[in-house]
Design goal:
The protein is mostly helical and about 260 residues long. It is built from eleven helices and no strands.
């Protein structure tokens, strides 16, 4: 029996057209997740460096017998979780998107049935999947090292919202870099900003560790993310001010990215 006869009988019913948007976004998110996890540099940024910072910081605090307001593992683990969010949603996203733009991948995807907003949604979905894996691995390592987070409803809810707002803020800033600079410049700038925020952005260490400039650092997205997670997971309180700072950075980054992003 021919395909024409089967079609006439209703066995085959052609349905030309694009797949539903949710299915396209989910497929794009799966592909983006696989690409992130297959890249050794991304895995290094996502898991290895934060894990080294966590273990090294705890050993250094014990070796130098530092006088801290909380046990070193309780103080460092929220900061390392913030560092992991920053490394994935900012540095990894900026570098990957910058080279996709250089090689024409974004241009081709932008002309596919998947709308450009769906492409960006797929990228953000992949970030959330990778970040969930990071939080499980790094949180598990912290618990194995003796981490004892404050488990309260305001604290847990605040930590989740801070992670989401921090992801939005850093993702918008990462796309701002990737959409305006050349790929090589994006690579250099993203790594430089990552190192600067790691060393002096109040993300791993509390803002109070930076003396007189500590209060100003809390208005940076790195400081707001780190301090927000420390408030939520050490003191068990809802970090409303830090959450608001991250939301403002997300709004500013989204506005600038929408105005300046170039697809090729």
């Amino acid at each position: 029996m021919s395909s024409e006869e089967l079609t006439a009988r209703g066995v085959f019913t052609p349905a030309p057209g694009a797949a539903p948007l949710t299915r396209m976004v989910a497929a794009q998110a799966r592909m983006e997740t696989r690409l992130l996890l297959r890249n050794g540099e991304q895995v290094l940024l996502a898991v290895v460096i934060p894990l080294v910072v966590l273990v090294g910081g705890i050993l250094a605090a014990r070796g130098f017998d530092l006088s801290l307001s909380h046990p070193p593992v309780d103080l460092l683990t929220p900061g390392v979780l913030a560092l992991a969010v920053m490394s994935t949603s900012f540095t990894s996203l900026a570098i990957a998107t910058g080279f996709e733009r250089r090689y024409g991948v974004l241009k081709r995807l932008g002309s596919s049935p998947l709308p450009r907003s769906g492409l960006l949604a797929g990228k953000v979905g992949a970030l959330l999947v990778v970040e969930a894996a990071q939080l499980v691995v790094l949180g598990g390592a912290g618990l194995a090292l003796g981490w004892s987070p404050a488990v309260t409803f305001p604290g847990v809810a605040g930590a989740v919202l801070v992670v989401l707002a921090g992801t939005a803020a850093f993702a918008s800033l990462g796309l701002l870099l990737a959409g305006t600079l050349r790929a090589e410049a994006t690579l250099a700038a993203a790594n430089l900003v990552y190192l600067l925020m790691l060393a002096g952005g109040a993300v791993v260490l509390p803002a109070s560790s930076y003396g007189g400039v500590g209060a100003a650092l809390t208005w940076l997205p790195s400081g707001a993310l780190g301090e927000g997670l420390r408030d939520a997971l050490i003191d068990g309180v809802f970090p409303g001010v830090h959450l608001l700072v991250l939301v403002l950075w997300a709004g500013l980054g989204t506005f600038l990215t929408a105005r300046t992003f170039r697809w090729e």
